[in-house]
Write a structure and sequence with these properties.
109 residues; alpha+beta; Heat Shock Protein 90; globular; ATP binding; nucleotide-binding; protein histidine kinase activity
């Protein structure tokens, strides 16, 4: 597993924890395995109904942000690092919160 991917995910988790508008619980980071793949799951319990579909479509787009002082580079950097390492990022969102799954091939497992 590339250290860059792990750093990117933890950077994102850190962003979620420090959000000014978040009055929710803790961000959870878990590792799972699925055959020869490792999955890093980052979950924000959130509030409300999850990420709006219009926003969800744009996540990872460089310079797209919903934060007043955001740069829009955090998730686009995560997606770029994942692509370079043949990994994928999937998002599951709803009233129970939002989880980002980073799926990595593990040829040494």
């Amino acid at each position: 597993m590339s250290p860059n991917i792990v750093l990117g995910v933890f950077s994102f988790a850190s962003f979620l924890e420090e959000r000014e508008h978040c009055k929710c619980g803790e961000v959870t980071v878990k590792t799972l395995s699925d055959g020869e793949e490792v999955i890093l799951a980052v979950r924000d319990p959130g509030e409300g109904e999850g990420i709006e579909p219009a926003v969800l479509k744009k996540l990872g787009t460089p310079f797209f942000t919903t934060k007043e002082n955001g740069t829009g580079l955090g998730l686009s950097t995560c997606y770029s690092i994942a692509t370079r390492h043949h990994a994928g990022i999937k998002i599951q969102t709803g009233s129970g919160g939002t989880t980002f799954f980073v799926r990595l091939g593990c040829n040494r497992c």
